[in-house]
């Protein structure tokens, strides 16, 4: 008995040590970036390097907030990510409910076709997308709104993945609940909105969060399809490398500014996200 307790205790200690080590490895780059953002250029290039800034300075943040990063790029990314994520969750919810509750000829083949779309590398779509953007005038200042175009591109790219996520949550909801709602006088649409959607809310929030983060971090399509003040934060950060050749404190300040909206969103939705992950683990 004593040996068994000692073994369990040693297992717990070793597990926590390993997890703590991985946590430190993951957190260290972010912490070092944060510390560097409060230095000036001379302090960044000091040898040997220092972890904490000798004097807390905001020069990097002042430069970032006075640049196009906060005047245009940040708001463009916020608009693109929000619009595309909401659109994806809305359309994916309707499609997922149809696949989950109705069986029609070709429904299984259609599901597999949607799954197959996830296997197509996004890089292969850039050339036709660029041609479409050019024909629609997206690349011209007086053309179609570039943010709406790139949001449509992100929506089309995120739909297959969101459909499969949300469908798994709809499948776990007993159909008897909807039948009871129909008996009580609800229409099918009312049963979906009042019964199914609230029960699947963790899955919807998880799909929204994953789509938002993926869109926020997207770089290649934004680099090819956007120009001028329509660019996103990832492209803006890339431009900083040519605008500020060795200004590491400006780069790191921009990284922290870019990271904050996603971090705030995750903090607000973390409860629903972890509920969705737990439900997925239990179903698995």
UniProtKB/TrEMBL annotation:
Tell me, in one coarse class, where this protein mainly resides: membrane
Q: Which GO terms describe its biological process?
A: transmembrane transport
Q: Where in the cell is it found?
A: Cell membrane
User: Which keywords label this protein?
Assistant: Cell membrane, Membrane, Transmembrane, Transmembrane helix, Transport
| Ranges that cross the membrane | 12-35, 73-97, 109-128, 148-170, 191-213, 246-269
Q: What are its GO cellular component terms?
A: plasma membrane
Official protein name in the record: Carbohydrate ABC transporter permease
Q: Look up and give the organism this protein is from.
A: Candidatus Thermofonsia Clade 1 bacterium
The organism's lineage is:
Bacteria, Bacillati, Chloroflexota, Candidatus Thermofontia, Candidatus Thermofonsia Clade 1
């Amino acid at each position: 008995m004593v040996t068994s307790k000692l073994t369990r205790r040693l297992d717990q200690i070793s597990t926590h040590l390993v997890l703590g080590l991985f946590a430190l490895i993951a957190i260290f780059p972010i912490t070092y970036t944060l510390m560097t953002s409060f230095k000036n250029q001379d302090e960044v290039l000091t040898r040997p390097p220092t972890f904490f800034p000798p004097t807390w300075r905001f020069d990097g943040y002042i430069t970032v907030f006075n640049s196009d990063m906060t005047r245009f790029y940040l708001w463009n990314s916020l608009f693109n990510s929000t619009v595309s994520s909401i659109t994806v969750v809305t359309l994916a919810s309707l499609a997922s409910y149809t696949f989950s509750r109705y069986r029609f000829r070709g429904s299984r083949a259609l599901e597999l076709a949607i799954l197959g779309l996830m296997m197509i590398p996004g890089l292969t779509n850039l050339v036709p997308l660029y041609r479409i953007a050019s024909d629609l005038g997206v690349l011209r200042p007086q053309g179609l709104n570039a943010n709406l175009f790139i949001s449509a591109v992100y929506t089309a790219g995120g739909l297959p993945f969101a459909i499969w996520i949300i469908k798994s949550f709809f499948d776990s909801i007993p159909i008897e609940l909807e039948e009871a709602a129909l008996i009580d006088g609800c229409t099918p649409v009312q049963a979906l909105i009042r019964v199914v959607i609230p029960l699947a809310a963790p899955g919807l929030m998880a799909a929204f969060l994953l789509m938002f983060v993926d869109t926020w971090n997207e770089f290649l399509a934004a680099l090819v399809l956007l120009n001028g003040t329509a660019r996103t934060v990832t492209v803006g950060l890339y431009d900083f490398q040519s605008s500020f050749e060795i200004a590491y404190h400006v780069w790191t300040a921009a990284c922290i500014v870019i990271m904050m909206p996603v971090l705030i969103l995750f903090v607000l939705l973390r409860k629903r996200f972890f509920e969705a992950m737990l439900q997925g683990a239990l179903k698995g």
